[in-house]
Amino acid sequence: MPGRPRVCLGENMSADGCLPVSRLVTDVDAGLSDGGPLARPPLRASASCVDVVMADPAVEVVVTRLDVGPDIVRASAALLSDAERQRASRFRFDREHRRFVVARARLRQLLGARLDVRPDAVELVYGKRGKPALAGRFADSGLRFNLSHCDDVALYAFSYGREIGVDIEAVRMVPDADVIAAHMFSRGENEVYRTLDPRDKPLGFFNCWTRKEAFIKALGDGLYYPLDRFDVSLAPSEPARILRVENTTGDQCGWTLHRCWPGPGLIGAIVVQQVACESASPVGSARIIGDSLAPWLSSGHDT
Ligand SMILES: CC(C)(COP(=O)(O)OP(=O)(O)OC[C@H]1O[C@@H](n2cnc3c(N)ncnc32)[C@H](O)[C@@H]1OP(=O)(O)O)[C@@H](O)C(=O)NCCC(=O)NCCS
Fold first, then answer.
1. Are 22 and 9 in contact, with CB atoms under 8 Å apart?
2. Do residues 133 and 141 make contact, with C-beta atoms less than 8 angstroms apart?
3. What is the rounded distance in angstroms from the CA atom of residue 104 to the CA atom of residue 112?
4. What is the pLDDT of residues 150-204, one digit of tens each?
5. Is 92 buried (19+), middle (13-18) or exposed (0-12) by CB count in 10 A?
6. Which helix (H) or strand (E) holds 154?
7. Ligand 1 atom nearest to 167, measured from its CA
């Protein structure tokens, strides 16, 4: 059984190497949903805390802000491996450097909490298309994860024994959206996209984009997996679904798609592998991530 997640609140690094997460936005129990109309309120949100509906109890979702001060960036860098620090040093812009360092440190912290080890002890390997996974003795835990960033927000998802992929995007007007849709979406997706009311197009576009991205990230193939080989739902009025994977219908394809609202103006998608025996997962029910946050979430405070 994995250790309970530990989340620290405060300005300084704690003794166990846990980063302060005063800007943490999180959690399971409110914004992850299989469907529902756009009219659904996009989370109770504030600068520091968001709660997320979790429709799939086998998945944990954490959303973290990456715009932290220099002290936290320094503390974060201390948790990285040498290879990660080298990678960080190659970012030309401070902002990109900070985002990578903080996101990777937070990943290590979240994994360490679930594995009951220090964040800097977590070992990672990469699949042939770059998907990170646990290495060495940690691989046997069955813990799977994936992450995505959009500007200063990072979305993490965790599951046991199931591959998982996530994507987060800011919903916005994209000048070439129709052209991009014609090239990147499958024929069926593009047909649906073209029939959308113009007001629904930005959300329809990013519904499709995040769902496709989450699926190819769950597979670990990234863009090596042909994007026309599968269809996802995208109309804002429709539930989030994988509709087809090659010649298999979505309900038989072995993957489940969820959407989530990680914060104002943001949309996320999570694709998780189905398992034959659901009870095989040690994650049995929806959980609040971070004991320190639980009172806020359950009492409905915006802080
Ligand atoms: C690399 C890729 C996996 C995601 O890239 P992205 O959208 O720029 O970035 P995201 O923030 O969503 O995800 C990046 C994270 O995914 C993880 N990742 C990298 N390669 C991955 C892979 N093959 N599979 C799954 N996860 C991967 C990493 O953790 C990475 O973050 P890190 O390097 O800081 O650890 C790949 O799918 C890609 O290049 N996508 C381009 C976007 C696109 O054209 N999408 C089409 C949708 S219609």
1. yes
2. no
3. 12
4. 999 999 999 999 999 999 999 999 999 999 999 999 999 999 999 999 999 999 9
5. exposed
6. strand 153-160
7. 12
Dump pLDDT digits (tens) for 213-237.
Answer: 999 999 999 999 999 999 999 999 9
CATH hierarchy code of domain 24-162: 3.90.470.20
Closest C-alpha residue for ligand 1 atom 3: 222
User: Which class for 276: exposed (0-12), middle (13-18), buried (19 or more C-beta within 10 A)?
Assistant: exposed
Atom nearest to 220 CA in ligand 1: 24
- Going from the Cα of 166 to the center of ligand 1, the distance in angstroms, rounded, reads 9
What does DSSP assign to residue 18? P
What are the sequence ranges of the domains in the chain? 24-162
Rounded to 5 degrees, what are φ and ψ at 97? -60, -50
Q: In this predicted structure, which of 11-25, 95-109, 158-172, 274-288 has the lowest mean pLDDT?
A: 11-25
Could you report how far apart the first and last alpha carbons of the chain are, in Å? 32
Structure tokens of 250?
């979505």
Phi, psi at 107, each rounded to 5°: -60, -45
pTM, two decimals, is: 0.80
Supply angle C-alpha 241, 5, 54, rounded to 5.
Answer: 25
